[in-house]
Amino acid sequence: MSGLGLSRIMFFSPACSVQHNRSMKTMDAVTIRQATLADLPVLLSYRRAMAEEMNTPDPVAVNRMITALEPYLRSAIPEGRWHAWIAEPGGCGAVEVVQWVPGRLDPTPRRAWIHSLYIEPSFRRRGIGRRLTETMVAWCREQGFRWIYLHASEQGRPLYESLGFEPSSEMRLKL
Q1: Residue 55, by phi and psi: left (phi above 0), alpha (psi -120 to 50) or beta?
Q2: Which of 66, 93, 151, 170 is the most exposed place for a label (fewest CB within 10 A)?
């Protein structure tokens, strides 16, 4: 982790680099490996697919996001501020570690946020999202986090609740 306490972890499957077994019924065929900078095109394509699938209304906004994300990852991956693993085949997700004000429930000055869990449509409902989330949770435990935060989509909420995540009172204001 960098001195700033910022780090990212993403789990994903590069559709372009793996021969998918469409009849896969179990997780036995899924492997996880650490990603490198060479995997950047796949990271960006999954992020785009997720935004489009979540009905981001403005394709220009999606393009801006991808345009901003690429140089960030080009520096953050080699600097060790962002870490990624590939789940072949099937999906992606991320844990972002951010600086945070120490609080009553957790006095440490950092938080873990799970975001960007995306499973390719043909691999959904096969346990890949669960395995990725369990892997992210295990990493957070190993790093000494006491809490993990996330924003759940309606499709993802049952998975997160089954793993023990609970709703919170968080609110936001668009400026």
Answers
A1: left
A2: 170
